[in-house]
Amino acid sequence: MLLIEDTDHWGASPEVANAFFDQTSRAFATLDAVMVVATQSDYTRREGYQRVRDRLTTEVSIPQLPDIEHGLAIMLERRMRQLGCARRCRRLWSIRG
Amino acid sequence: MRDTLQALDAEFAFQTSGRFDLLAGEHVAYSTLGAPDVDGTLRRSIERGEGVTTVVGRMGSGKSSLIAAVANSLDEGFLPLRVSVIGVEAGDPAAFARHAITEIRDVPAAQLTHHEAQALDRASAEYRSQTSTRELRAGFEIAGGVAPCCS
After folding, report:
1. Distance from the CA of A81 to the CA of which of A5, A29, B132, B135 falls in 20 to 30 A?
2. A70 contact residues in B (CB cutoff 8 A)
3. How many domains does chain B have?
4. Does residue B115 belong to the interface with chain A, where contact is any CB pair within 8 Å?
5. For the segment B133-143, what is each residue's pLDDT rounded down to a tens digit?
6. What is the distance between the alpha carbons of residues B88 and B84, in angstroms, rounded to a whole number?
């Protein structure tokens, strides 16, 4: 499984993204392998992407959160737990919240 | 509370780590956030074992962390291999394939995530034992062999 997840670097030269989808991803789609490509929304409007779109296995769109406030709180708590500061930060929340 | 969160967001408190090996742990499944289960959608797409899947979103929307989390949770039959697009003729399939092979072969062990290191070890053992590479569903077969990373 090939992961192509730094394509934001093509932001300054979208024609590169165009060529990648039109040529390279099309060729790799025929291999006995999975290719997952992080794709900026802007790239999907390029001709190269449009041409290969119906050959994609799946196009996964990052969804909007239905409740941004709730979502951000959960994400922040996860991050805090990872940093080992859950208890301290919970106190912070209770004071601030 | 909303003001606090918005202020934190403005200060990039929710920005994920640039390190791929940390992204998986930072990711919160979208279904947990009340959004559609795109984690499951991506997983099922990968588990088909072929083809190209795109993860579409604006810059900083969580594409990489979603990919990292799903890649990190796949079963041992999948070998996730990150390939950078920097410094390659991205529109030339042959050049990109050469670049991918070089990157995979030359990646320092220290840069592999635990999951990737385990997967590579398994792939190497598989290759050395001369058992079928077809079993390695995500094995990257080129010219009749598994990817040079595994030799």
Report:
1. A5
2. 33-34
3. 2
4. no
5. 444 444 443 33
6. 8
Least Cα separation, residue A89 to chain B (angstroms):
13
CA distance B29 to B31: 5
pLDDT along chain A (97 residues), means of 10: 86 85 88 90 92 93 90 82 66 49
B56 bridge partner residues: A39, A61
Residue ranges covered by each domain of chain A: 2-55, 65-97
Same structural domain for residues B58 and B6?
yes
Smallest Cβ distance to B138: which of A1, A17, A24?
A1
pTM of the model: 0.74
Token digits of residue B55: 């993860």
**B143 within some domain:** yes
ipTM field = 0.85
DSSP strand E in A5-96: where? 34-40, 58-61
Q: For residues B34-49, b (16+ Cβ closer than 10 Å) or e, as one string?
A: ebeebbebbbebbeeb
| pLDDT 10s digits, B47-56 | 998 899 999 9
Give the separation between CA B84 and CA B135, rounded to whole angstroms: 26
